[in-house]
Design brief:
Elements lengths: L1 H20 L5 H8 L1 E3 L9 E3 H5 L6 H12 L5 H26 L2 H17 L1
Antiparallel strand pairs: 1-2
Helix pairs in contact: 1-2
Amino acid sequence: LIAVKTSDKDTVSAAGEKDADSPEEEPWETALKTTVIDMEVGEFQGHKVSVWDLLHSKYIPEENRKELLELYQAGELTLDQVKTVVSTIVTKAEAARAEQLANASSPRAESTVAEPEHTHLQED
């Protein structure tokens, strides 16, 4: 119910200009497109990105996007909750990607494994 009330307010304040451009756009969609998040990571680092754009980015799998949109439309998630979920998914995805890159390009991991083998071979 809170999300619906918030969406109604957004619609009233943005009705004049938005309706002329895209009369078929839903109030909840307008709210997602006009709400921005300052992203600290990934391809959006240092930019203000709309919740809508983040939902449709490579970071959010299609099934997650559909589920989040359904919950938001139904009023089960507030706009703030959607913002939090989306930014958390992007942040975790970037952290995991950075960790993979670090592990893949780390020569220390290989040399640490190789040294005990050489030591063992010399004892034989």
